[in-house]
Design goal:
Distance between the termini: 22 Å
Strand content: under 5%
Order of helices and strands: HHHH
Radius of gyration: 18 Å
Number of strands: 0
């Protein structure tokens, strides 16, 4: 984040980096009673979320690797 951002806006970008975590915490806070009563539901949601993020990261790496080789950079 600090490598590609303008130093003028570094404080704003650092604060924006915490928004996704705060939003996820807020969403799980709304369903706290259901997750407390059924802990397997939270585990299933976490597994599905990590699987989706993992597949997305693998796809990004594969797409980025193909475009890098096509451009002639290593």
């Amino acid at each position: 984040m600090t490598k590609y951002s303008n130093p003028k806006y570094l404080a704003i970008l650092s604060s924006l980096a915490f928004l996704p975590t705060r939003l996820i915490s807020l969403i799980f806070g709304l369903f706290n009673d259901k997750l407390y009563d059924n802990p397997m539901l939270g585990l299933k949601i976490g597994i599905v979320g990590m699987t989706i993020i993992g597949i997305g990261l693998i796809a990004y790496i594969l797409i980025n690797k193909k475009t890098t080789y096509n451009n002639g950079y290593k």
